[in-house]
C-alpha cells in the first residue's frame, strides 16, 4: 500500500430538519390547536483513531464527507428523525488542523479517541412551540440549522519508540528487517525507502518496542530537500534515535562529517530533535575497510559512545537490541521520576 502522510478533506455535518406547521384535525374539533413537531438534529461528522488504518491512503480517493440531514417534524407533535452521524476512521498519530487558519484541532495519540469535526445543525421548532395565550394559532415554524462545513488538513506522524535515521543507503531497511517483523524493500542504492516502515521488536529483555525506519535524509532535508520535512516529522514522536552510519563511506579526512551533517538537519528542522537521545551505530562492519574506518571514527569521536554491527551479516544485532531495550527502560524511569 502506498504511504500517504498528508491529506486535505472537506467535512460537512447534516442540517437540522425543519419544524412542522400543523393543526389538530379531528372529528368534532374543526379548529384544533397547533401540533407541529420539531425537526430532527443533523448528523455529526466524527473522526475516530484506529489501529486498523496505518496511512492516509484512503483519503486519496474520497475527499468530501457529509453526514445525514435531520428529517422534518410531523403533525401530532412527532419529532423528525435525527440524521445519522458519519464516522471517519484515521490512523493513530493523525493531526487534524483547520486548513484555512492552520490551527491544530486534534492530535490523535491513542486508539479509540474521537473528535467531532463538524456538529450537526439543530432541528427547527414546530409551530406547537409558538403557541401562547395571545397567539393561539401560529402558522409558522423554524427552519433547521444548517450543518457546518470545514476544510481540514490531516498529517500523520508515526508513533514509534525508536527512529532509525541516517543517510540513504546506510542500511536502515536491512536493519529493521533483521530486528523486527517488518519486511521493507531493500536495495543497494539510495532512496530505496520512500516511506517510513514500522516494525515491532520482540526480545527477552523486557517489553517489545516499535521501531520506525525513517527514509534516508540528505543535506538540506530540514528545508525540504529530498522530501526531508515530510520524513523528519516522523522522528518527532520517537523517544530514542538510532543513528546508523555506513562505516565504509566514512571520510578518512573528516570521519565525523556524516554524523554532524545528519544532526545539523535535525536541528535545522526542530532543535528538540537534535537533543533527543541517540545511539550511534556503525553498520556494514563485515565489508573490507570498515575496521580502519571505525578506528578513525573512534579517534575523532572522542568520548562519544558508539556501537558496531553488520545488519546484513547479523553481527552484533543481539547486543544492539539489548542496548536499545535498556535505553528505553532508562528513559521510562527518568520520565516517571520527572512526573
From TrEMBL:
<feature type="domain" description="Obg">
    <location>
        <begin position="1"/>
        <end position="159"/>
    </location>
</feature>
<feature type="binding site">
    <location>
        <begin position="310"/>
        <end position="312"/>
    </location>
    <ligand>
        <name>GTP</name>
    </ligand>
</feature>
<dbReference type="InterPro" id="IPR031167">
    <property type="entry name" value="G_OBG"/>
</dbReference>
<comment type="subunit">
    <text>Monomer.</text>
</comment>
<dbReference type="GO" id="GO:0005737">
    <property type="term" value="C:cytoplasm"/>
</dbReference>
<feature type="binding site">
    <location>
        <begin position="191"/>
        <end position="195"/>
    </location>
    <ligand>
        <name>GTP</name>
    </ligand>
</feature>
<feature type="binding site">
    <location>
        <begin position="166"/>
        <end position="173"/>
    </location>
    <ligand>
        <name>GTP</name>
    </ligand>
</feature>
<dbReference type="GO" id="GO:0005525">
    <property type="term" value="F:GTP binding"/>
</dbReference>
<dbReference type="GO" id="GO:0042254">
    <property type="term" value="P:ribosome biogenesis"/>
</dbReference>
<feature type="region of interest" description="Disordered">
    <location>
        <begin position="118"/>
        <end position="144"/>
    </location>
</feature>
<keyword id="KW-0378">Hydrolase</keyword>
<feature type="domain" description="OBG-type G">
    <location>
        <begin position="160"/>
        <end position="329"/>
    </location>
</feature>
<keyword id="KW-0963">Cytoplasm</keyword>
<keyword id="KW-0479">Metal-binding</keyword>
<feature type="binding site">
    <location>
        <begin position="283"/>
        <end position="286"/>
    </location>
    <ligand>
        <name>GTP</name>
    </ligand>
</feature>
<keyword id="KW-0342">GTP-binding</keyword>
<keyword id="KW-0547">Nucleotide-binding</keyword>
<feature type="binding site">
    <location>
        <position position="193"/>
    </location>
    <ligand>
        <name>Mg(2+)</name>
    </ligand>
</feature>
<comment type="function">
    <text>An essential GTPase which binds GTP, GDP and possibly (p)ppGpp with moderate affinity, with high nucleotide exchange rates and a fairly low GTP hydrolysis rate. Plays a role in control of the cell cycle, stress response, ribosome biogenesis and in those bacteria that undergo differentiation, in morphogenesis control.</text>
</comment>
<dbReference type="InterPro" id="IPR006169">
    <property type="entry name" value="GTP1_OBG_dom"/>
</dbReference>
<dbReference type="InterPro" id="IPR045086">
    <property type="entry name" value="OBG_GTPase"/>
</dbReference>
<dbReference type="InterPro" id="IPR027417">
    <property type="entry name" value="P-loop_NTPase"/>
</dbReference>
<dbReference type="InterPro" id="IPR006073">
    <property type="entry name" value="GTP-bd"/>
</dbReference>
<protein>
    <recommendedName>
        <fullName>GTPase Obg</fullName>
        <ecNumber>3.6.5.-</ecNumber>
    </recommendedName>
</protein>
<dbReference type="Pfam" id="PF01018">
    <property type="entry name" value="GTP1_OBG"/>
</dbReference>
<dbReference type="GO" id="GO:0043022">
    <property type="term" value="F:ribosome binding"/>
</dbReference>
<dbReference type="InterPro" id="IPR014100">
    <property type="entry name" value="GTP-bd_Obg/CgtA"/>
</dbReference>
<feature type="binding site">
    <location>
        <position position="173"/>
    </location>
    <ligand>
        <name>Mg(2+)</name>
    </ligand>
</feature>
<dbReference type="Pfam" id="PF01926">
    <property type="entry name" value="MMR_HSR1"/>
</dbReference>
<feature type="binding site">
    <location>
        <begin position="213"/>
        <end position="216"/>
    </location>
    <ligand>
        <name>GTP</name>
    </ligand>
</feature>
<dbReference type="InterPro" id="IPR036726">
    <property type="entry name" value="GTP1_OBG_dom_sf"/>
</dbReference>
<dbReference type="GO" id="GO:0000287">
    <property type="term" value="F:magnesium ion binding"/>
</dbReference>
<dbReference type="InterPro" id="IPR006074">
    <property type="entry name" value="GTP1-OBG_CS"/>
</dbReference>
<keyword id="KW-0460">Magnesium</keyword>
<comment type="similarity">
    <text>Belongs to the TRAFAC class OBG-HflX-like GTPase superfamily. OBG GTPase family.</text>
</comment>
<dbReference type="GO" id="GO:0003924">
    <property type="term" value="F:GTPase activity"/>
</dbReference>
